[in-house]
Amino acid sequence: MFEAFFGMTESQFLAALLAFVRTSALLSVAPLFGNRTVPVKVKAFISLLLTVVVAPMLKSSSQFDGITLLQMVPLAVTEAFIGLLLGFTAKLIFEGFQFGGKLISHQMGLGLAEIIDPDSGNQGSPIGNIFSLLAIVLFLNLNGHHLVIAALYRSFELAPVGKEHVAVAAAREHLLRMFNEVFTIGVRLAAPGLAMMFLIEVAIGVIARLVPQMNIFFVGLPLRLGVGLFAVVASLPLFYLLFETLMGLWQRDLITMLKYL
Asked: How many domains in the chain?
């Protein structure tokens, strides 16, 4: 029946179905592809297209012969876990930029000006959302979408479909290391702005002591905003280097993690 309708054996069809599960899970959380602005039908079409592309490299195994629906469930869960892992680790890069922007926003006095990010649906700071948009531009400029697809293709070589279980401990270890790297990058992004904000706070404190009758609030707020925006603009050249570094670290850690799954 499968050969008549799909031009492939039952084993090949089930392998392609599991590959579709992994691809769909990846695109549901991956940067750019996983945004709410991307329609579900578009995501499904891209998932199907990528599955067709990787189908020739899927190893047809006798383990799928005569397999029942109940036996397919744990295999599908494993594939979904691998796909979510691929997409989530890539999205961590954007979280690092959002974190750095939030640090600067709070120091600039914009802690109460948090707004809803239309892409993620989460509450974010104004500077954090600007950093996220810059990250998307850099992601496209550095062909990050190509790297995500290449990582998906590579995952089928290092972690073939049909795995009954994954090494959760190894995945957790590598995820923690990625979290640490993202946190470090976020702090490095915010470092110039935080340093200037610290100097401004010291200057405001000195002025308050020297001129007690001055309304520091009306002087300090626009001063923080102006210096903070200047620091953000001045640090823009660093964004490209940091984002490029993050993409390289992501590729390295992802390949290492897939080898241990």
From this structure: 1
